[in-house]
């Protein structure tokens, strides 16, 4: 039941928050270099940022990590539902195992993506 609820929540979160972030990015891109630099300072990294931008920078990264987790949670849950639609995996033990693996897989995939991003940011 929890996997199904999280599937709906992450789908809505990806649609709403992801769309707003995407529109903000497009608006900043269309508004010119200064607006785009301000967008990047809020959601990514600006070594010269003041204290306000440092706070928004942390919040922006939290949102990006959250969107990454929501993506993987929704993806793995959707794959689980796909398997269930074939008629497989309804045994209680197997269903519980797949449900746990959805959560664990989403966390591990999110960690892997952000560790890769951090490594590229340090060495790139």
UniProtKB/TrEMBL annotation:
GO terms for molecular function: electron transfer activity; metal ion binding. The keyword Isomerase does not apply. SUPFAM superfamilies: Fumarate reductase respiratory complex transmembrane subunits (SSF81343). CDD domains: SQR_TypeC_SdhC. GO terms for cellular component: membrane. Heme binds at residue 74. One of its GO terms (biological process) is tricarboxylic acid cycle. Its cofactor is heme. The heme is bound between the two transmembrane subunits. Keywords: Heme, Iron, Membrane, Metal-binding, Transmembrane, Transmembrane helix. It is found in: Membrane. InterPro entries: SQR/QFR_C/D, Succ_DH_cytb556, SuccDH_FuR_B_TM-su. The chain crosses the membrane at residues 12-31, 58-76, 97-117. Belongs to the cytochrome b560 family. Membrane-anchoring subunit of succinate dehydrogenase (SDH). NCBIfam families: succ_dehyd_cytB. Part of an enzyme complex containing four subunits: a flavoprotein, an iron-sulfur protein, plus two membrane-anchoring proteins, SdhC and SdhD. The complex can form homotrimers. This is Succinate dehydrogenase cytochrome b556 subunit. It comes from Sphingopyxis panaciterrulae.
């Amino acid at each position: 039941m929890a996997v199904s609820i999280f599937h709906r929540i992450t789908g809505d979160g990806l649609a709403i928050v992801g769309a707003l972030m995407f529109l903000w990015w497009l608006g900043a891109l269309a508004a010119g270099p200064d607006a785009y630099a301000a967008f990047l300072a809020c959601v990514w990294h600006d070594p010269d940022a003041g204290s306000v931008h440092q706070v928004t920078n942390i919040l922006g990264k939290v949102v990006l990590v959250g969107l990454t987790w929501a993506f993987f949670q929704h993806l793995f849950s959707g794959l689980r539902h796909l398997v269930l639609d074939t008629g497989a995996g309804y045994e209680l033990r197997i269903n519980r195992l797949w449900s746990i693996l959805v959560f664990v897989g989403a966390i591990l995939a999110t960690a892997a993506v952000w560790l890769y991003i951090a490594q590229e940011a340090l060495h790139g």
